[in-house]
Amino acid sequence: MPLTEPVYIVSVVRDYEMYDRCIRNNPFCQGFQLFPLDNRTENLPVPVRYNQFLDREEEDGWIVFCHEDWRLDCSLPPLLEGLDRSRLYGPIGMWLIECPHSDFMEVRGFTVDGPKDGSRSNRFRGVRLRGRVDTFDCQCLVVHSSLIRRYGLRFDERLAFDLYVEDFCVGAYERYGIESHILLMECHHFSQGSVGQRFYEALACLQEKYRSARKRYASIVGRHITFGRNTDKPVYNMHRTLGAMIRYLIKK
After folding, report:
1. Helix (H, G, I), strand (E, B), or coil: what is residue 160?
2. CA distances for 9 relative to 30, 114, 160, angstroms
3. 157 in helix, strand or coil?
4. What is the mean pLDDT of residues 53-75?
5. In sequence order, which residues have a C-beta less than 8 Å from that of residue 132 and are 6 or more positions away?
6. CA–CA gap between residue 237 and residue 53 (Å, rounded)
7. In a domain, 110, yes or no
8. 103 and 96 in contact (C-beta within 8 Å)?
9. Is residue 193 included in any domain, yes or no?
């Protein structure tokens, strides 16, 4: 299907060998406008680089913010054609279901992940493959430039290398009611992530920022990681809860 408007692939790059393998030489990225943001020398925070792209004057089109080690494995234009431009999209994310006494974290969408050398891979599937989510994983965010321009959306530059897409999604919904929805696409993320001190510092920033939010939110990274209101309630991962129920029924 021919492109009817530009598609911009925006990545912060430190490993150009990985970038070339996943994006520049990817046949599924042919015809797109590629913007590798060179971060080898300055190593600026990812949100800073993304905002620098947003400061550019480009023709309206779809923007795909993705990691240098994220590979598209399907034709994107048919998925974008006719898509609601008033929403945010991504391949995998988290929806937090609030209940009176406890809450549930439900992964939605799917992706393939694994180590950078490609030695093995894991198809990570959510409880549901479609639907609305609170937040996406930082590996990929898809948004139309007209939505960015209409509301002046920006990335929080305090969140240097963690949770900046989660914040972008929550901020867009809290301020403007912009929803995030799964975009079913085949993709491979050559990273399994890590959770360290820097991540928890970013989480503390979000917990303070959204202390009076309209709901409780969750990140797909980490375990039982939440922010927003009512975070003192117990929270359970729907994947593990369903698995425990199935194992219990099988034993019976």
Report:
1. coil
2. 11, 22, 20
3. coil
4. 96
5. 95, 108, 179, 180, 181, 182
6. 36
7. yes
8. yes
9. yes
Reported residue count of the chain is 252
Confidence check: pLDDT of 20 > 50: yes
Q: Evaluate whether residue 133 is within a structural domain.
A: yes
3-state secondary structure of 228: strand
Residue 156: CB partners within 8 Å, gap ≥ 6? 47, 164, 167, 168, 171, 205, 209
Alpha-carbon gap, residue 4 to 129, rounded angstroms: 27
Tell me the pTM.
0.92
Would you call 25 helix, strand, or coil by DSSP?
A: coil
Domain that holds residue 227: 7-251
| pLDDT cut 70: percent of the chain above it | 92
DSSP 8-state symbol, 211: T
Domain count across the chain: 1
Given a contact cutoff of 8 angstroms between Cβ atoms, the answer to whether 135 and 116 are in contact is no
Phi, psi of 229 (to 5 degrees): -85, 160
Q: Which of 199, 211, 65 is nearest to 144 (CA)?
A: 65
Structure tokens, 228? 């927003």
Pairing of strands 226-228, 92-97: unpaired
Identify the residue whose tokens are 């998925």.
79
| Helical axes 46-54 vs 164-176, angle rounded to 10° | 50
Instruction: Provide the CATH number for the domain around residue 66.
Output: 3.90.550.10
d(CA 71, CA 19): 9
